Fold:
Amino acid sequence: AMKVLTTLRNHWKKTTFGVCLLSWGGNWLYGKHCDNLLRRAACQEAQTFGNQLIPSSMPLKKATVFLNPAACKGKARNLFEKNAAPILHLSGLDVTVVKTDYEGQAKKLLELMENTDLIIIAGGDGTVQEVLQELSDANANLLSSCVQAAFSKIPIGFIPLGKTCTLSHTLYPESTNQVQHITNATLAILKGETVPLDVLQIKGEKEQPVFAVTGLRWGCYRDAGVKVSKYWYLGPLKTKAAHFFSTFKEWPQKHQAALTYLGPTERPPEEPEERPSRPPLYVRLYRRLRLYWSPPPKEIPQEVTPEDWEELKLSTVELSIATRNRQLDLTRTEDFMDICIEADAVSKGQFVNRGSQKMRDPHMCPEGSQCIQASRCILQLLEGTEGSFGIDNEEYEAMPVEVKLLPRKLRFFCDPRMREQMLHAAVQ
Structure:
């Protein structure tokens, strides 16, 4: 034993390196073991859904999974197959996986949509937007309004596999463990609780609109945020560096435009999930005959009141137009989107500090900003304006746009605990 201790002391550098390596290896193996326990527990829970008896006349529920293999730096496919796929298969769902790594999928998506009970999007913010865009293109080009309405009622599950997964903050509890976050999201789909989410329809000079579930950003913080990855070699300082170096341009960087908007709209009552049963044939015949012999009196057309548009000239360091999906209130009586116009008088120090906060919460509205609630708006840019918009973290060329709120357009599966929290917060 003394000989071993002497050898270790004489080669202290190698000993230190070996101890560090063993500690790291042990920690890594323990982490893998914990991840396997999480997967096993989730699969056991999924098995209870799969063991439920269903009548022989009832077909299996069909789930269409849209998987983006490129998400999370190409790791998404492996993450899905290890953590989510076993849960879905054990639950008794009839699963079809479609990879979203090629263009021109509209026709194939359309065929799948005609025969699916639920949609699952596996990826990040970009995947959500890409799938919604492809489906809306297919619906707009090839389907009747009746089928479009049916599509908006198909519940959507979101499995967070990407670098940015904004929706997961609303739908699932926070978790630092990626495996737990993915398994929680997959189990939430099986539990069947849903919440309605708003969608923004953003229409520019092109014919086809873009859809967003989070919102649109235009300004300096967005431009600096895109460049953060270029400073990867600075480690934890990369965010501050990107914002600091962006202040070397002309300062303050003002974004000028004209904004026209309409205020919030009153929320209509929830439509019943199930339609009332059709009356018998003799009742329908009686109603038609009664209408034929005594038609209802003609209604006097009422004067339509002109919409109350407000106009505003703005000069800002950043403009954001966001849905209320991050602060979901299931009991509110009005529908609106939040427009945040940040003051253009911001010091370089404030800009760098606020930039780090914006990376965590891109649509935060700092103190001193002008906040507007609107159901629809038109953003007119000055002639010669360059730059880009960020729409759900995807980059688009800046141009004049009309943004329209589509309230409660899509239903997303969520963790029952999160829904309970939303309802509890609304009561308080």
